[in-house]
Amino acid sequence: MNPTYETFSTQLSSQLPDAVPFFNDLFAASPQFELSMFQDKFDSFLMEIALAVIENDTIDLIAAERITETLRELFKEVNEFAPEQQSLIYAATHYFFETEDAVADKSSAEGFQDDLIVVNTMFDVIGKPELQIKL
């Protein structure tokens, strides 16, 4: 395992232990991810969440929008990161797109809290703590 992921995993374990096994699977698959996989997914994911709000108005659409906006900014410079950091970025983004993760995104107002922890931890580990999202 690489040191970037070990640091991330340690930090995530202390904040959100239920997410670690799920994230481990995504990180293992991250070499298969490509930047092009994510470009269109941002819009379709936000549309999916906006439609879900019709059924459940407690879903935190603002959190989903803030995470999306910040990840889009990061993706503009993703090629400037080392490969192990890119893997972490891709895995954290994929985690965000998973609606049935440690806390189901469409279940309640807290649905994106785990995503915020994962994404903010990733920002810290890749050396971009200024991108951390505060809601």
Secondary structure elements and their pairing?
Blueprint: H1 3-15, H2 19-29, H3 35-39, H4 41-55, H5 61-75, H6 83-97, H7 113-125
Helix pairs in contact: 1-2, 1-7, 2-6, 4-5, 6-7
> Strand portion, in percent?
under 5%
Helix content: 55-70%
Span of the ends, CA to CA: 32 Å
The secondary structure category is mainly alpha
Number of helices: 7
| Shape assignment | globular
Provide the low-confidence segments as ranges. none
List how many beta strands DSSP finds.
0
Element-by-element helix/strand order:
HHHHHHH
What profile does the largest beta sheet have?
none
Rg from alpha-carbon coordinates: 14 Å
Overall pLDDT confidence = 91
Instruction: Indicate how many domains the architecture comprises.
Output: 1
Describe the protein's architecture and organization.
- By secondary structure, the protein is mostly helical.
- The protein has one domain.
- 64% of the residues lie in helices and 0% in strands.
- It is built from seven helices and no strands.
- It has helices spanning 3-15, 19-29, 35-39, 41-55, 61-75, 83-97, 113-125.
- α1 runs antiparallel to α7 and α6 packs antiparallel against α7.
- The longest helix is centred in the middle third of the chain and has 15 residues, at 41-55.
- The radius of gyration is 14 Å and the shape is globular.
- The N and C termini lie far apart (32 Å).
